[in-house]
């Protein structure tokens, strides 16, 4: 799978990239929402891990732009702010697949990737049944 990590904190990007690469996935890095939007259109990652508070284009703005481009985009929020107002809104509007709170662990990321794999397999099976 191609996994994009979007966070303005270089240390967070590096740690997540290491965890994801150890799982055998291709990693795409973006430092802000604008770069994420550009890379999404070019590389079409299978999963995105998106921070909320970033310069140039915030996480919520980037999530909405990516979803406008591709309703099927699988996005997980990564944030240290459990009370960010966008969290409830994103859940209500089904904009994201889930949320990981900082500090996160390797298990948190692995569980998200596992959920995405199960979701993709289910989509394939349903597509085969309806074909």
Automatic annotation (TrEMBL):
Tagged with keyword Phosphoprotein: yes
Coiled-coil region(s): none
GO biological process, one term: phosphorelay signal transduction system
Keywords of this entry: Phosphoprotein
Name of the molecule in the record: Response regulator
């Amino acid at each position: 799978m191609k996994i994009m990590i979007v966070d303005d904190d270089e240390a967070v990007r590096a740690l997540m990239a290491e965890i994801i690469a150890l799982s055998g996935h291709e990693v795409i890095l973006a430092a802000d929402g604008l770069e994420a939007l550009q890379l999404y259109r070019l590389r079409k990652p299978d999963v995105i891990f998106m921070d909320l508070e970033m310069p140039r284009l915030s996480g919520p703005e980037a999530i909405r732009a990516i979803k406008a481009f591709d309703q099927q985009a699988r996005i997980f929020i990564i944030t240290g702010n459990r009370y960010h107002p966008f969290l409830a809104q994103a859940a209500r509007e089904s904009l994201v697949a889930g949320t990981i709170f900082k500090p996160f662990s390797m298990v948190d990321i692995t569980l998200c990737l596992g959920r995405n794999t199960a979701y993709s397999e289910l989509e394939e099976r349903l597509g085969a049944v309806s074909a």
